[in-house]
Amino acid sequence: MLQRVAAAYAQRDQPKAKSYFRHGLILSAALCACLLVVAFAVGLFVPGWLGADMVYQRQLGWAFVISSAAVAMSFLGSYCRDFAIALQHSTVPTAVMIASDVGSLALTIGGLLGGFGLWALVAGAVFRGAILLSGCGAYAVHLDRALGQTSGWTPAIFRDFLVTTPWTLLAKSSAQLVSQLPAVLLTRVIGPEATVAYVVTARAVALMDQLCNQIVASCYGPLSHHFHSDPAERIRATLRTLTGVILLVGLVGAAGYGAGIRTFVALWTGPSYFLGDIAGAAFAAGILVGIWNRWGVMVLLASGRIVRGSVLSFAETGLRGVGLVLGIVLAGSRGAPVGLLIGSLVMAVPTLRAYNSIIGAWIAYREFALGVGVSCSVLAVSTLVSVFVPSNSWVVLGACEIVWCGSVFCCAIILVPGLRQAILLRAGSVVSRVSGASWLSARLRS
Question: Which of 280, 340, 352, 282 is nearest to 316 (CA)?
Answer without folding.
Answer: 340
